[in-house]
Write a structure and sequence with these properties.
- The protein has helices at residues 41-44, 114-122; strands at residues 2-9, 17-19, 23-25, 30-34, 47-49, 52-54, 61-63, 67-69, 75-76, 80-81, 88-90, 95-96, 134-135, 140-143, 148-151, 154-158, 160-163, 168-171, 175-179, 183-185, 190-192, 200-204, 220-223, 229-234, 239-242, 246-253, 256-258, 263-267, 279-287.
- It has 294 residues and is mainly beta.
- It is globular, with a radius of gyration of 20 Å.
- The mean pLDDT is 92.
Amino acid sequence: IETELRRIPHTPFVHALFAKNDLLVGGNPQTDAFDSRLGSWASQAGLSDGAGPYAGDGGDVGANMDITVEGTTTVIRGDVRMGPVGSLTINGSPTIWGSTTPLDVEIDLPNTPYSEFEAAWKTNDNASIPATFFNSKTGGLEGKSSEVITLDGGTYFFESISIGAQASLVVKGPCKIYVTGPANLSGQGVVNETGIPANFQLYAHPYPLPPGKIQEKASVTLVGGSEAYMAVYAPERPVVINGGSDLYGAVVGGDVTVGGNPKFHYDKALDDIRTLPGYTIQRLSWRELSSPPR
């Protein structure tokens, strides 16, 4: 037998929400999917159901272990797939459009390489941030009250992020952010003016950077907003998502907890991000070879 194979680099963002461990979909959230390569979500949201407008199905959620879905007006416009030995618990009367069968195998979610974090620690654009917001001694980024922190395109490394009260983090160009400690993006959250989730990538992992510093496995906290376009990858961190606004892109966490009534709009264009080590092997074709003549 002759087989034709293709080696595909791993992509971390193939679900609206995915948990390496357990996923709790609480509150009354909604999911759907759009493609930022074709324009904004609003320009594609020409469909409507009892829960409101949406762009299309494909707003999948999943976990390598257990999933709980709650709510009375929750609408998952896609699959809900737990791990191969995980369980699905339904509380209330949520609507699930797609499959609820378990995954065949757990999805591999390797850590963002240490070398990538180290490179961001050594060479970054932190110096462009006013000292009012970035403390170079502690490595922390902090916004209080109604402060607005602006990030131009570039690479940033923080030991912690705290965007609280009515503060906001405004993204002007393509950014990659690496954080080793707690990341609280609440307040008015992220305002990604590019309208492209891939232009705000947040990678969180408790690596000992600066070297020798022990980082705790602190949580990542997110809220949505009218311009909350983001891709978050934190497979070793608990991720908490609250509020009642929109979040465009994708989120991967360790244990993921959703509260409130957020609307998740998965961006299919994120499938183009190939940042993780390793590959998936896809079989393209096969044929049975004839026996050689004797």
